[in-house]
Amino acid sequence: MAVDYITSLSKNGLTDWLYQRATAIVLALYTIFFAGFLIGSPEITYATWSHLFAATWFKVFTLATVISVAVHSWVGMWGILTDYVKPNGLRLLLQMLVIFVCLIITLWCLLILWGA
Question: Transmembrane region positions (predicted)?
Answer without folding.
Answer: 18-39, 60-81, 93-114
